[in-house]
Amino acid sequence: MKSRRKIFAKVSLDAEEIREKIRCGCDGLEYNLLEDFIHKGSCFEACYLQELFTMYNVEVVHVPFYADGKVMNMEYVFSHEDVGPIRNVFRLAQYCADIWKHRMLVVIHTSLSYYDYMEYELLRKRLVKLLGQFFEKYPMVDLAVENVVPMEYKEGRGEAPRLCNGTFTDLAKIVRALRESFGERVGSVLDLCHAAMTEKYMTALLAAADFLPQKDKAPEYLDYSMEHYVQMHQGICRLIHFNDLTGNGYGRNHGTAFQDWDKAKAWIALFQKYHYECPFTLEIREDDYKNCINYRKTKAMLDAFWENGSCTAFGQ
Question: How far apart are the C-alpha atoms of 35 and 295, rounded to whole Å?
Fold first, then answer.
C-alpha cells in the first residue's frame, strides 16, 4: 500500500460549491479568491457568510484573480502603494488558522526571472520588509510561490501573448533566496499543468532556436523536462496543484483532469523518487462547479493508487 497524501479541493467563497467538494471528499479546502475579495477583503468578517469559514477545514488561501483572469502576481501587489489587498489575504489566512488551529498557506504567483528579482533592488527590499511584517503580525501563516506558464494569453482580450521571464529555474532560486530571510515559512507550489505547458512550449522554442544548444548538447539550465522540474523543487515544495492540460493548455484546455493514468502515475513516481511529502490540491476545471464530475474522477484515480498501487478499475 502506498502512503496516502492529503487531498485538498479548490473552492471559491460559495457555500454550494464548498458543500459539493465536501460531498466529493477532501481533507481540506484551498480558497480560490476572486475579484470581489479585492473589494470586500477589508471587511470579510462581515461581508461574507461566517459559515464559509467554519463549515469545513481550510488549509490554503490563494491570492485573488481578477474578473478577466489576470492574477495578482507577487511582483505587482508588493509594488503597489496600497498593499491592503495582499495584507487582507494574510489576515484571512490567520483568521482561518485561528478557527482550525493549524498553520495556513498563502499561495501567490510570480513571473519574475531570478535576474530581475536581484536587479529590482527596491522591489526586493520592499518585498522582504513587508513579508517580515506580515509574518510577525500573522504568525500562523506561511507563503508559497507558484510556477507560471511561459506565455500568457487570454482569448478575446485583444492583446498579443505576453512572454514571461520567470518560468523554470527562476522560481526555485527566488524561493531559496527568500528562505535565507524567512526559512521554511516560504516555499513553492508546483502546478503540474503549468509545468507541462512550460515543457511543451519551451522545448518547442529550444528546438526552433538554432543559436541555442540542441537537445543532445543542452546544458542543465536548458533542461525543461518534468524530472528536472521536480528535482529543482525538492525540499522547498509545500503544495502540488494536481491537474493536466489538453491541446494548447489555455482556456478550457487548462487545469483539466488526467485522461491518461500512466501520465499521472509517472508524476507520482517522480514525487516518490525525490521524496515529496506535500499534499495535493485537485485544481480541476469543471463545466459546473456544483457538480464536480472531473474532481470525483481524479480523486477516485488517486484513491485507487494509494490503496493498491494500481488503477486497473479506473475509467471502467
Answer: 24
